[in-house]
Write a structure and sequence with these properties.
By secondary structure, this protein is mainly α. 66% of the residues lie in helices and 0% in strands. The protein folds into two domains: 109 residues, Tetratricopeptide repeat domain (Serine Threonine Protein Phosphatase 5, Tetratricopeptide repeat, Alpha Horseshoe); 94 residues, no CATH class.
Length: 256
């Protein structure tokens, strides 16, 4: 099977100076900027708020006007202060995603820092970079790290990589396990949707076909092993990934 490159979507946020006496009229952006100016320079809390300020500016939410250039300033501050989510976003900027910067070496460096800190989207991105370099061992390592945090695209890429047998450590059991886990997750989500689209049904059918193909690669013993592993699998997201998934609610938490 071919390994297809997948696009992933990102969510983002921002900041503006206001007095310490917050009122209901103040935007979340203004409150966050006022708070960040009171925090100890270089602290983890300051860096996290700087990241969220950048996200609000990047997306134009939380009361901020969309401004990628200003977002980049906050992301750089937070990244240099050690915030993994900001390091990932800075890497996205250097990758040319927002049309302001283009430096592949810097993009990889910043995304790798975020990946090593445990951020699932960064892990997925560095895996794709390694894949382009035909370094399949590192591709598999980082795809699995992201997949084990529940990233659906990473699960599929990881399964496809092992099924393709592009590297010596390719494992048909793992190909089966992660295809099965991905199929089960998407089916469970599909069953909760108020509107079930035809494209979703087609994806589920495709995954079922992929499972059948993966099963053909296994002995009866290995299939039993794979079924057990798939049943026992549980997503284990890091605190960094959970903060990212929390989105703008994380700002409200930090301000309370």
């Amino acid at each position: 099977m071919k390994l297809n490159s997948l696009l992933f979507s990102l969510s983002l946020f921002c900041a503006a100076h206001m007095s310490v006496a917050w009122s209901a009229e103040l935007s979340l952006y203004a409150k966050a900027q006022a708070q960040v100016e009171k925090l100890s320079a270089g602290s983890a809390e300051e860096a996290e708020l700087q990241y969220h300020l950048g996200m609000m500016l990047n997306s134009g939410n939380g009361g901020a006007k969309k401004n990628p250039q200003s977002a980049l300033v906050w992301f750089r501050k937070a990244a240099e202060n050690g915030n993994p989510l900001a390091q990932y976003k800075l890497g996205c900027y250097y990758a040319g995603q927002f049309g302001l910067l283009k430096d592949e070496a810097q993009a990889f460096d910043w995304k790798m820092r975020a990946a090593q800190a445990g951020y699932s989207l960064a892990q997925h991105d560095v895996a794709l970079i390694f894949y382009k370099r035909q370094d399949y061992k590192n591709t598999a390592l980082w795809l699995r790290a992201a997949a084990d945090q529940g990233e659906f695209a990473s699960m599929m890429q990881f399964a496809l990589l092992h099924a393709s047998k592009r590297f010596p450590d390719a494992d048909s059991v793992l190909a089966y396990v992660y295809t099965k886990v991905a199929a089960d997750l998407i089916a469970a989500k599909f069953n909760t949707l108020p509107v079930q689209r035809d494209e979703d049904k087609k994806l589920i059918n495709k995954l079922q076909g992929d499972i059948a193909k993966a099963a053909q690669e296994l002995s009866a013993e290995n299939r039993t092993k794979a079924e057990q592993l798939a049943t026992q699998w549980q997503a284990k997201a890091t605190s960094v990934t959970l903060t990212a998934r929390e989105g703008i609610k994380a700002v409200e938490r930090l301000l309370n």
